[in-house]
Structures are given as structure tokens and as C-alpha cells.
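Worked example 4.2. Below are the chains of a multi-component assembly; read each line carefully before continuing.
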Amino acid sequence: MAPSSEPLTTERILVATEEVLRRHGPAKATVVDVARALGVSHGSVYRHFRTKTALREAVTKRWLDRTTEALAAITATDADPETRLREWLATLFAAKRRKAGIDPELFATYGLLAQESGDVVDAHLVELTDQLTGIVREGVARGVFAAPDPAVTASALFQATGRFHDPGYAKEWEKPGAQGDFEALVDLLVRGLRA
Amino acid sequence: MAPSSEPLTTERILVATEEVLRRHGPAKATVVDVARALGVSHGSVYRHFRTKTALREAVTKRWLDRTTEALAAITATDADPETRLREWLATLFAAKRRKAGIDPELFATYGLLAQESGDVVDAHLVELTDQLTGIVREGVARGVFAAPDPAVTASALFQATGRFHDPGYAKEWEKPGAQGDFEALVDLLVRGLRA
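Applying the procedure described above to all two chains together yields the following C-alpha cells:
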């Protein structure tokens, strides 16, 4: 990347970090590598990220947050809860499948980073389950879902659909039956939820 | 293992192979290693297993078959289908958790062997899903389950519970919430199945 006169924001550093990851894989994404890609001094990157770990956690969080934000938009609509639930699960599956399909190497790189950044991933999973809890709670409030404890049910829904969002299953997502399997599973779960 | 005067059956070879795997890990389970453990000539083992691959597939199948057989007994009872389904899923989870917990190294060794023996594992998964299909079909026949296509529903049930039988999740099984998560999921799935 050529030096630029733009101010060195956190976002610019993270964009450059992702580009370094895309080109060179996980081993090369250090503060020094990213500073070089941006044509700036190490010190100016260190002012934003004091360690390699902090940089790598931040870029992993940014990658995960893109999914979280797309899903938050569905959570926040006023559609009936069953529609919202189906869209939420379908969007999560589609987002993961797209990420894994478009650039499998970057997907695998983030998979490795995620293993290093356990706290970031745990927080991401809590955010997603909280969104699901909101949908389930709304369904209970409207009398269309039965769930004695919406948080427990949301966690069960998230775990039940793991095959369609856990990166460990990425190889399964392009198989011919995957979409049909996903829909059969969601139908079964939605039936189980109905009041 | 000391030489023995017992006849050299396939079962004896497989018992010895598992013992070699337990002691030495996956790298050492060759025909020569197993013959040495049994105190017999290579040739006498080769008469049962003509390649290292055949031997390793057979010992993997034997390991998987122990679970299949325990589950087949539940499939075959005359209990009401919901009880059978719950017991089947609980027994599968318990069997996997026990295998992973009692001897994690042997469990990991079989995990590696399973990756080599894709056909054996696929056949195992088909057997298990067929057992589930039988339970779902019986529930439909008795009017207690609703499932337009029992095989599709059985596959959805199996995939939905993957977190509690897929070896990739073994680390999750000993966490404090795992049993409660499992039960919440099964409750949701059973509700979804009811006619």
C-alpha cells in the first residue's frame, strides 16, 4: 500500500491488517508488517494497538462484527417473530457460507486468529445468542412462541444450527443437500417453538 | 502381549490393534506392529487384513460399531417413540462423552483414524440416521409424530444434535452447562416432532 496523507485511523489500520492477512496469511500480520503496508512508522500503529495480540484481536472482532451487525438489523425489525427467526438463521448461514466460499484462505486465516482470540469469539457468541434471545422473548410476548426461559431456548437454537454456522463445518456448506438440510432443521425447530 | 495358543481370529487381531493404538498412538498401528504384539508372524495377520489400510479401517469400524449396537438395542424396544428418541439421543451423547472422557488419547487416535477412513465413517453415519428414521417412522405410524418425510426429519435431528456427538466438540462435553444444554435442545426437537 502506498503512503497516504489520510489520517491514520484505527479503521485504516484494520483495513490494512485484513489486506496483509489476505495476501500473506496469519503469520505475517504483525504491527511491523502492517506499518510497512501502510507506509507509516511502527510507532504510529503502536499508538492504536500496543501489542500484536491487540491488533489481531481487533481485526478478528471487526470480521465477526460484520456478521453481528447484519443480524442485528433483522433482530430490530417489526416482522413477526417466526419470520425474524427464520431470516436471522438463514442470514447467518448465508453470511458464513459466503465468507467461506468467496475467499477460503482468508476464512481459514480468521479461523486461526479466532482460536487465538478466545475472549473475542466468546463475546461474539454471547452477542449472537442475545439477539436470538430477543427474538424468542418477543415471540413469547406476542403469544406465538412457547419458551419457559427464552435465553435457554435461544442457546438451544444456536447450538442446534451449529452445523450451519460453525466454521468447522465449512466443507459441508457447499454440498448439494446442505440448503435442504438447513431448511428441514429450521422447520423442525420453529415447530418446536410454536405456542 | 505374550504369544498365545488361542486361534488367531479377526477379533483377536482387532483387540490387539486397539491395544497397540492405546499404547503407541496412531502412527504405530501397522500389520507388523500388531503381529509383534500378538507374537505371531506378519503373514498370519496378513491373511486377515491384506493392507495396513484394511486393518485400520476394520479397527475403526469396530470402535464405531460399539456405539451403533448400543443404540440399535434402543431402536428395537417397544417403548413409545418419544421415549425411544430421547433415550437414543441421550445414549449417543453419553457414549461419546464416556469414550472421550475415559481415554482422551485413544479417542483422539480414533478421531485421526476416522479421518483416514471416510467410507467407514459415512457408513456409520448412515446406520445411525437409519436407526433414527425407524424411530421417527414408528412415531408417525402411531400418530404421535408429524414428519412428512421421516428420513429428512431424522437427518435434521441428527445434525441438530451434532454438538453432542461430533468428536470436534468433545472439549465442550465436560463443561458444566453441557447436560442442561443437551436437554433443552432435545425438548425443543421433541416438541417440533409432536403431531
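Take a moment to check your reading of the output against the notes. Residues 10-46 of chain B form one domain. The two ends of chain B are 56 Å apart (CA to CA).
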